[in-house]
Amino acid sequence: MRLLFDKSFMQPDDMVELLRHRGLEIENHQRVSHYIRNIGYYRLSAYMFPLLCQPKEKHCFKQGSKFQDALNLYRFDKKLRLFLFNEIEKVEIALRSTLANLVAEETGNIFWMTDETLFANSDKFRRTMELVDKELRNSKEEFILHFKEKYSNPYPPAWILVEILPLGVVTRMFENLADNTLRKKIAARFGLTVPVFTSWITVVTLTRNACCHHARVWNKENAISPMIPRRLSDRWIVSNVSPKRIYYNICIIRWFIDIVSPNNDMLEHLQALLAEYPMIDTRAMGFPQNWQDEPLWSTRC
User: Fold this and answer.
1) Cβ neighbour number for residue 72 with a 10 Å cutoff
2) Cα–chain center distance at 247
């Protein structure tokens, strides 16, 4: 049976005392109150959760737990999101360019993104077009305004249109392409089969969205588990790691990065981030022991 929510509003100072009562060490009351006021108790509570004793429902902190521990975890998660978003940006740009240009080249149709005859499912196409129309209608990008002013075509060519579409919409277009040969060629550009490519770009999109919306990512389980490839080249991971954890997402991003930017410094940035926060439990993120020795991380393209 569901209950009515009966918790009342509390001032930051009262929340500090509540945390102290539950066993959390508070080094500076005013400082902690400041963070609760500006970050929010509810957001910070997700980073206090690992500090709780079992059973968690009792809300008692482990002996020696400090507010600074939760704050360090919060800051790490923020920097992890920034790191991930920076890498995903490179992947996203490459995915957009590859899809827009390869299909245009193969079909000879520069307006293919809005050509219903090239898509398998008419209902999915129409729903996608509703999103395309919305983005085109609301866009204030100068290149879109210039196109509307100069040309009478209802839609720009693929390489222009793709620049204003969310990655999720671009993914839908790929999935709905009627010609499976086209989808195979696109996936092959990234060394993947169509099912694995589709699964992985979905995970990349969801990870990107989590980063954009400031969601917790460091120990959160994937809502949709990425597909585990049956066969890949010898530079994938060999350890038995959970596809539900962020480490697997990071590995997927690394796979794409190695292809679109072979001389990248993703490993160095990741190692530096983990070194900056040595207190982080990387096992909760899905990292195996000696992860940096995996072929994915130790072998260059």
Assistant:
1) 16
2) 12
pLDDT classification of 300: cutoffs 50, 70, 90: low
Report the Cα 149 to chain-centroid distance in Å.
36
DSSP per residue over 76-92, as a string? Answer: HHHHHHHHHHHHHHHHH
Rounded CA-CA distance 132/134 in Å is 5
Dihedral over alpha carbons 50, 54, 60, 65 (to 10 degrees): -40
Q: For residue range 154-186, what is the model confidence (pLDDT) as tens digits?
A: 999 999 999 999 999 999 999 999 999 999 999
Q: Which residues contact 34 (CB under 8 A, 6 or more apart)?
A: 12
Strand ranges for 118-184 from DSSP E: none
Closest CA to 67 of 13, 96, 29, 110: 29
Nearest-angstrom CA–CA distance, 91 and 82: 15
What CA–CA distance (Å, rounded) separates 223 from 249?
Answer: 12
Let me know if 209 is exposed, middle or buried by CB neighbors in 10 A (0-12, 13-18, 19+).
middle
> Is residue 244 classed as helix, strand or coil in its secondary structure?
coil
| Res 292 pLDDT > 70 | yes
Alpha carbon distance 264, 257 (integer Å)? 7
pLDDT over threshold 90, residue 238 = no
Which tokens sit at 160?
A: 């222009």
Q: What is the C-alpha separation between 175 and 88, in angstroms, rounded?
A: 20
- The residues pairing with 119 across neighbouring beta strands, listed in sequence order, are 177
Handedness of CA 48, 54, 55, 59 (dihedral sign): negative
Contact between 119 and 177 under an 8 Å Cβ cutoff? The reply is yes
